[in-house]
């Protein structure tokens, strides 16, 4: 397919690849960059660099090989993405839970233990854990409780969070004894876990699960775990539609923060306590002054429309305020909006699943309000919580 024909073909499509694989791209002069394909829109592509920056680039300047790759990828893009996930129906009509508890202990199956290759594989009901050291059944059961409880929590929220891609029937988790090996595999410096979208894989150092080496074996503190991990599990289980323009950033990160900040202990999430937890996290340094966004009680965000349509690279450039405001705004739509029944956010999520995105999807969220009216309502709702929201 010639370049001119390719451009005409691409102009007919706008396709989002929320979790495409990373690859090396070349321009017409042979210069290379490693990135993921996020979107094909008109005569441009949007590439996601490893730094998290989104870069729009003209198709005509890409190598012919890369243009052919995009053409093939566009033609093979499935008509339905991860929205079907585990095959469960959308649950928008379900009641909002007060508490979600995982009962009992997960059944663990040992798939492989190969000391020579440092390859050890264990499975619980929904997850497969591949580790570079041997772990006892009791240790695997201990941290599997958190993963399985989070899976249950995400699925029970009445938000149709029924996405996710399994690898050979399970959601994939890679575990690392040493933090350096975690970083080498793709973990981010100073992080306690990460979701690699293109591979549908969560990477976790054992220390983040409360697993510590004691003598020749390992022990687990079941109550010592990072809220980073539930955050990444949410990403792993979220339908691709919820990563579309208009939701990518404020909602995709807001829902992950919401789950991660819900108080958790020994397999149980207590939603009755998460309003306080969210406020402490956003305004100060979180529970026990550890790990919060520290935005204070007066928060200046600027235009709400600009914020909700930020390119993801701009969103992550200032994670402190953008992630903090994301959980406040999603929490507003869940529990503080109008009749406090989440009806408006559910209409928005249904619209995303129907293929709307960008400003078209956000018009559904506005539901007849102006942006100024929505800003005023959010500010009023949080003023009673001791937070002055300034747009």
What features would you describe in this structure?
It is a single chain. The chain is α+β, with helices and mostly antiparallel strands. The protein folds into three domains: 3-77, SLA1 homology domain 1 (SH3 type barrels, Roll); 101-237, Glutaredoxin; 244-390. Helix content is 36%, strand content 21%. The chain has 13 helices and 18 strands. The protein has helices at 3-11, 64-76, 137-156, 179-184, 228-237, 250-261, 274-283, 304-308, 312-317, 319-336, 343-353, 358-366, 371-383; strands spanning 14-16, 22-26, 32-41, 44-49, 54-58, 99-101, 109-114, 119-123, 127-131, 171-176, 194-196, 201-205, 211-214, 217-220, 264-265, 268-270, 298-300, 388-390. The chain has a six-stranded mixed sheet. Strands 1, 2, 3, 4 and 5 form a five-stranded antiparallel sheet that branches. Strands 6-16-15 form a three-stranded antiparallel sheet, covered by helices on one side. Helix 3 (137-156) packs across helix 5 and helix 6 (250-261) packs across helix 10 (319-336). The longest helix has 20 residues, at 137-156.
- Largest beta sheet: strand ordering: 7-8-9-10-12-11
- Sequence stretches where pLDDT stays below 50 over 5 or more residues: 1-15, 75-84
Helical run tally: 13
Spatial separation of the terminal alpha carbons: 49 Å
Tell me what portion of residues adopts beta-strand conformation. Answer: 15-25%
User: What is the residue-averaged pLDDT?
Assistant: 85
Based on CA inertia axes, which overall geometry fits? Answer: globular
Round the Cα radius of gyration to an integer and report it: 22 Å
């Amino acid at each position: 397919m010639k370049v001119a024909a390719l451009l005409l073909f691409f102009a007919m499509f706008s396709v989002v690849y929320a979790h495409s694989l990373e690859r090396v791209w070349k321009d017409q002069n042979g210069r290379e960059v490693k990135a993921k394909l996020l979107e094909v829109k008109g005569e441009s592509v949007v590439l996601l660099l490893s730094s998290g920056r989104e870069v729009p680039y003209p198709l005509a300047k890409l190598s012919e090989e890369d243009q052919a790759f995009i053409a093939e990828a566009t033609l093979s893009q499935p008509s339905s993405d991860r929205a079907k996930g585990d095959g469960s129906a959308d649950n928008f009509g379900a009641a909002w839970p007060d508490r979600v508890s995982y009962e009992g202990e997960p059944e663990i199956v040992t798939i492989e233990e190969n000391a020579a290759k440092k390859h050890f594989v264990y499975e619980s009901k929904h997850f497969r854990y591949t580790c570079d050291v041997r772990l006892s059944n009791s240790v695997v059961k201990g941290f599997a409780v958190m993963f399985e409880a989070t899976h249950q929590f995400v699925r029970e929220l009445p938000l149709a969070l029924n996405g996710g891609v399994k690898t050979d029937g399970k959601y994939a988790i890679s575990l690392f004894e040493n933090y350096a090996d975690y970083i080498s595999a793709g973990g981010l410096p100073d992080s306690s876990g990460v979701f690699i979208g293109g591979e549908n894989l969560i990477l976790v150092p054992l220390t983040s699960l409360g697993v510590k080496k004691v003598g020749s074996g390992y022990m687990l503190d079941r109550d010592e775990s990072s809220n980073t991990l539930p955050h990444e599990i949410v990403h792993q289980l979220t339908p691709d539609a919820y990563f579309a323009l208009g939701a990518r950033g404020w909602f995709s990160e807001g829902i992950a923060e919401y789950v991660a900040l819900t108080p958790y202990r020994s397999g149980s999430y207590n939603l009755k306590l998460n309003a306080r937890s969210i406020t402490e996290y956003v305004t100060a340094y979180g529970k026990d002054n550890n790990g919060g966004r520290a935005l204070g009680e007066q928060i200046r965000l600027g235009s709400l429309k600009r914020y909700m349509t930020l390119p993801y690279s701009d969103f992550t450039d200032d994670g402190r305020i953008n992630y903090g405001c994301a959980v406040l705004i999603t929490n507003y739509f869940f529990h503080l909006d109008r009749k406090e029944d989440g009806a408006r956010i559910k209409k928005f999520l249904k619209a995303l699943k129907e293929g709307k995105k960008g400003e078209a999807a956000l018009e559904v969220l506005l539901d007849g309000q102006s942006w100024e009216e929505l800003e005023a309502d959010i500010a009023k709702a949080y003023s009673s919580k001791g937070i002055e929201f300034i747009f």
